[in-house]
Structures are given as structure tokens and as C-alpha cells.
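Technical note accompanying the year-one report. For the benefit of new consortium partners, we illustrate the data format agreed upon in the data management plan: each record pairs a sequence with a C-alpha cell string. No post-processing was applied to the example shown here.
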Amino acid sequence: MPAEDGGPDTVLSVQLDCSGSQVPGACNDDWPSGSEPEACTGIDHGVLLDAALPFDVVAGQEYLIRLARYENISALDYVLELQLEVPSGRVPSVQSSFGSPLRLSKNLQEILLEWSPSCMTLDSDYAVYRGPIGLFDLHEPLSCSSGDPFRWSEPLAGDSYYYLIVPNNLFNEGSYGSGDTGGTAWERPPSPSACYPQSIGVCP
């Protein structure tokens, strides 16, 4: 990953096995200029020394990460930093083809929210956000964990609020909801005080 550029000139690649079967495109010399197609072909860009390599992984697949120095550069200590980004999904909406959309009901004592599972199987929990009606980008977390997988309730408050249910996988949270205005798709913005960083996966 990008560092202080004060150490050895590194080359980073990812293989599927010890035979050197490289993951297509998974090689980098000088980040960001050393990305494909010239990375790891012997061309040293020589501007930035650190290597970085974002790539998509497949669940259940083992990977070998190869960290090397460029050609005859003297050996020094290496620092390898790994960052795992696991995308999260969305709860069903009116436009989606899976599950029942978020449902809200109330009585004289409480608000009850119920929803179907996220479109992504790794999503294990749900955050509950609330904001004032009319100010639709001021949602704040009521709880980063719903406790019950597909239900949330709270005492009925005097003011008018909207609620959002946002799935997460304990690494990242997903969509806050999306819509379509005149054929233009839009995504509701995350909360300024979000429970997790946002990384939205591909959903139906």
C-alpha cells in the first residue's frame, strides 16, 4: 500500500498458487503510475517507489501475495499493509426484485419497523438511522445494531421523522436507499456520523 516512499523500490503481485499463476492485472511497481498495462514488465517508472495493489477477491479462493524488490535494489525491511473492503448491500425497496420493502407501523405507544434480509449474504446486522421529515440528509444513527435481525421498535416521539435501515457486515455498511427521478438514479447520502465506512455491493 502507499507509504512514505522512503524504503526499497517494491513490486507487488498476487498469485493463485506457487507455480506463479498470477491473478490477471494483479501486479504493481510504482503506485499509481505503475499500474497495468506496464506494471511488472521490467519498466521502472522511478517516480514513486511504493507499490499498491487493489484487486477483487473471490470467496473461498486462497491467494499468495508476493512482495519483492525491483531488480538489484538493495534489500531493506518491508512493510506490507492489508486493507480488507467487504461490500455491503441494501434492504429491499419497491424497485428491487427481492424480498419485501421496509414496512413502518405505529400505535399510540411505539413505532415498529420490519424489513427483509439484505441482498448480500455477508450482511449480518442492520443499523437504524432517523432524521427529521423534510431534511432528508440529516439522518443520525439511533443504533448501529438492530438487535433483532429484521425488526426495530422505539417509543413514539412527538416530532415527525423518517427512518432508514442500513445493512452492514461489521466491516462496511451498504446503501441508505436509492431512487429514480426522471430516469436518473440517485443514492441517498450516508450519515456524517455513520456506524461504518460505506462500500455498496452490486444488488438486484
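Partners are asked to follow this layout when depositing records. The mean pLDDT is 81.
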